[in-house]
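Before the break, one more example. Copy the sequence into your notebook; we will annotate it together after we see the structure.
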Amino acid sequence: MKKKILIRIGSLRHGGAEKVLVTFLKNLPADRYDIDLLLNLYSGKYLPEVPEWINVRYLNRGEMITTNRIQDLPEKIYRVLYQKLLKTFPSLLYRFILQNKKYDIEFAAIHGFRDEILNSPQTSSKKLMWIHNDLTQVKGYTPESIRRFFGYDQVMVISEKIKDTFLSLAAGEKEKQKIIRIYNPLDTQEIITKAAKPVLDYTFDTAVPTFISVGTVFPQKGFDRLLRVHKKLLNEGYPHRILIVGDGYDFENIKTLKSELDIDQSVTMLGFSDNPYPYINAADFYILSSRYEGFPTVLFEAITLKKNIIATDVSGVHEMLEDGKLGLITENSEDGIYDGMKRALENPESFRYYQQNLAQYEMPFDLQNSVQHITDILDNL
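Here is what the structure looks like once it is written out:
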């Protein structure tokens, strides 16, 4: 008999957790599971990639509303109140949206759905959590609130740093055993194949180095820091270009900052691309300017493409870059980003060390092993 599983996530917009979830779903055996994927908002670039055998349910339809324009406010307010109602009275959600279906496993695909799953009226289901961020760096999370995740039967974490955080907060061996370190599913062959496609909508200037950064445009990603460092280096006489691929609620703010700094000619914000790999492939350096992360999958993508990497010292980076063997790890600050980019511009030969190591590097996992690890967890719950 197939296991009945409910998976919850906000939408399938262009974020790392969303991409990883869809990659996982695409590689699941359809004959073993009966899955309902419940979205708060039926939208996102990854929706078409969800396998047909998975039942997609939703609370609201339409694109994410990222502005406070007068004409958008009624819909925005309605969505907020509707979702709050269903969160406050979960029995309504399970009765009318999920049609009283009984689940063996209820699975929160991101940490933001902690309480929704814990407050499920289906007390007999097993509860599974997938944490992609270092919660010690996320606003509003205290040791006490992080401890609430131990209410789950199993907590999957994507880096050793996150695992260590949970182990330090665990009350005894039973809670420690709930924490499992997993590798995110990543299709390296797909990355290599897509990277070979032509670059669209952008012309690389071979006369000056280009730094690329790919990610959802949130404050977490530190694109504001990246632009300020870029401006400083330009003022100091180091010509280069910045390419940002991604979209998000902070997009207009970063775009405004770009104009305020008078760097519109040297910074391009492409918005979302369903294939960022040709851009990564053609750029001279990949730069991660994040304030915090869990285990930034985009670095594995850059490693797969053997790129010169500069990354701030956030969760997961030391693991992924093997303590600085595969790329330059900088202090997590504007000064750190500045030092890393200046080194790349002044002394690009120093990156040969990383290239030599990247040439010999083999991924510590493959797609099928990662998927198998998670399915083992599902099967044993």
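The chain has a mean pLDDT of 93. Residues 73-88 form the longest helix (16 residues). Try to locate both features in your own notes.
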